[in-house]
Each structure stands twice: as structure tokens, then as C-alpha cells.
Amino acid sequence: MGLEIENVWEATDNLSFILNYAYLDPEIKESPALVNSIDPFQNDAEAQPLAGGGETLAGYILPNTPKNKAAFNARYRFDLEGGGTITPSVSYFWQDIAYTSIFNRFYNKVPSWDQVDARLTYRSADGTWTLIGFVRNVFDERQFDSATAGLRRGNNQNVVTQACGTSPATTVDHSGANFLGSLAQNCYTTNVTLRPPRTFGAELQFRF
């Protein structure tokens, strides 16, 4: 279930504002017993184990479904003497936290993020051509787009899964007993994808 609201305010003939807000309820109400491949024995403090094995997903949220999103845009049109127009526009976006797995863990959590974009549009008097200049992610914010984790199995699996390389037990020792590259216990690796940094661009449009 969800709710989406869009508000448009034409303050004057030249000035307008747009506000969008979306709310989604992606919470899982109940589930059968499932096994998290990163934490197969439910050793993690965030796990919700069930009797008989596995864990419930009740209370978790669906993957890639932030609960809240909001967007705001302000635009003003300058009417030139020759009939053309120049329109600067500024947009702000915000997105709530999300997870990339049905097992909501810190290692697959995508933090909330926001972004400011700007554009400047010139339209000719006869409307046959338009020139647009834009900047995305104006403040060059570092934003996560996705976060995933993978399991590296070790000799001892019935322990809290730690990040690989953070302790002797989760670090491969290429000497002595561990020469072949075995781990003393399970550990996980993470992979994150970032959204684009500050980007500049221009677009030229012709209408025939």
C-alpha cells in the first residue's frame, strides 16, 4: 500500500513550484522460515530465528523499496524582448533508506540520500530550437545506489559473520597451516555501487 501526492503551485505567470511526495508501506507481515546465506545459522544480533531453523522476515521491508521519497522543483521564466525565454530551474530530491535483500542487514543497507540539480533553458521566439544546460548532483555528494554482500566460508561457520580481513580468523594466512588460503571462520565481503558524481551537460533540441 502507498500514497503519492503531487502539488503544483503557479505563483505567477512566470513562477511555479512543484512538490511531490510518495509513501510506500513495503513491510513484510509474515513469512515462512528462510535462511540468510550470509548468516546461515542466525548468529547475527539482527537475525530473527525461528524454532527449528531459519528465520522470519516479519517486520523487514522489501528489497529496493524505500518508504519515503520527496522531490521539489522551482522554476522561473524570463520573457525576453525578442520573444525568446530563459528559464532557470532548481530541483531537490530525497530518498529514504533501502535494502538490497529481503534480509535487512547493515551490509546490504542503502543509506538515505539527497541531491540538488539545476538547469538553464533558452527557447527561441518561434519555438523551433531549445538550448538546455544542466548540472546534476550540484554539491557532488557521495551517494550509495546499492550495497550487496557475499559469504566466504571458513572452517568455523557457527559464529557471528564478520567482515573479511577484520580479524585474524577472517584473514587468509598464506603461511603454515593456512598456506592453501583457508579461513578460520566465515566472513563476508561487500560491494557498493555509487551514484554519479557532479555531472555537467548540454542539450540542443530542434523542432521541425
Quick summary:
With 208 residues, this protein is an all-beta fold.
Walk me through what this model shows.
This protein is mainly β. It has one domain (2-141, 200-206). It contains no helices and 13 strands. It has strands spanning 2-10, 15-24, 68-76, 78-79, 85-95, 98-99, 109-110, 113-123, 129-136, 144-152, 162-163, 187-194, 199-206. Strands 1, 2, 3, 4, 5, 8, 9 and 13 form an eight-stranded antiparallel beta sheet that branches. It has a three-stranded mixed beta sheet with strand order 10-12-11, with no helix packed on it. A two-stranded antiparallel ribbon has the order 6-7. The two termini are 44 Å apart. The model has no long low-confidence stretch (mean pLDDT 92).
SSE layout:
Elements: E1 2-10, E2 15-24, E3 68-76, E4 78-79, E5 85-95, E6 98-99, E7 109-110, E8 113-123, E9 129-136, E10 144-152, E11 162-163, E12 187-194, E13 199-206
Parallel strand pairs: 11-12
Antiparallel strand pairs: 1-2, 2-3, 3-5, 4-5, 5-8, 6-7, 8-9, 9-13, 10-12
